[in-house]
Design brief:
Elements: H1 2-60, H2 71-76
Length: 77
């Protein structure tokens, strides 16, 4: 009986250590998620700003002038 109690005690100790380890890992993962979510939000904002700048730049460019027709285009006319 004493041996069985000793084994049970060891298993409970192992379970407690594993539980603490998993709690630490879970806390670390939650922190990682928060950090990555913040980073994703910032990158999305920066991409939107870049898109707005590109659209503004495209609006300032002069319209394209038609190029000389290629022989294929002349035959189609």
């Amino acid at each position: 009986m004493s041996y069985e109690l000793q084994q049970l005690s060891e298993k409970v100790t192992q379970l407690a250590a594993l539980t603490q380890s998993l709690r630490r890992e879970n806390a670390d993962l939650r922190l990682d998620v928060t950090t990555l979510t913040t980073e994703k939000t910032e990158l999305s904002r920066r991409m939107e700003e870049a898109l707005q700048r590109a659209q503004t730049l495209l609006e300032t460019l002069p319209p394209a002038t038609p190029a000389d027709p290629t022989p294929d285009e002349e035959a189609a006319v």
